[in-house]
Design a protein that fits this description.
The protein has 183 residues and is of the alpha+beta class. The chain has one domain. The strands form 3 sheets. It has a 5-stranded antiparallel beta sheet with strand order 5-4-3-2-7. It has a two-stranded antiparallel sheet with strand order 1-6. Strand 3 and strand 4 form a beta hairpin. Helix 3 runs antiparallel to helix 4. The C terminus is likely disordered.
Length: 183
């Protein structure tokens, strides 16, 4: 059994209190408080430096990762990312996450289960080519056996982990006619 904490009731209460919760600073403060006052950007994204990487030996175009973040209250956030030649998906840990994990091990276990489900779905997709089906089946094994994974801790950078060639968006509160974000 995983140590999962369901935050859905608290998040639903905040969303009902603030109809514009996704862009309301007060709602974001309340959500951050659920995570012990965690630092996040104005979209609720938390910088993740702890990454578990899973790669298919012999084919670097098939890969997966689990991004982890520990909140100040000791709860862990997790999200998964995956890339194949024809598909991909994922995200970053966020204060909008409805599930918290009691420890890192529980978060990694949940992430691995999610990735197994993702690659099984990819393997069983009706329109998948024979090669895609074969590679997706090969990804299930390393994801299902954590001994094949490696953990990477990324250094904090002045760009917040963002590639330096991409400018960091600047939030403008005023109506300058250029939208909410611009470089």
């Amino acid at each position: 059994m995983m140590d999962v904490i369901d935050l859905s009731p608290q998040i639903d209460a905040i969303r009902s209190k603030y109809p514009d919760a996704y862009r309301n600073p007060a709602a974001l403060r309340e959500l951050a408080a659920l995570w012990g006052g965690v630092d996040c950007n104005d979209c609720g994204v938390i910088l993740s430096r702890d990454v578990v990487k899973i790669e298919l030996q012999g084919n670097p175009r098939w890969r997966a990762s689990i991004l982890l973040a520990e909140a100040p209250n000791g709860r862990w956030l997790m999200t998964t990312n995956y890339d194949t030649p024809t598909a991909g998906g994922g995200g970053c840990p966020s204060i909008w996450s409805r599930r918290a994990y009691a420890n890192r091990e529980a978060a990694v276990t949940a992430g691995l289960a999610k990735l197994v489900e993702t690659f099984e779905r990819e393997r069983d997709w009706p329109s998948a080519t024979e090669g895609e089906t074969r590679y997706a089946a090969r990804m299930v094994d390393p994801v299902a056996s954590p001994s094949s994974t490696k953990t990477t801790v990324r250094p904090l950078t002045s760009s917040g982990g963002r590639c330096p060639r991409w400018p960091r968006p600047i939030h403008r509160a005023g109506g300058d006619g250029r939208g909410a974000f611009h470089a």
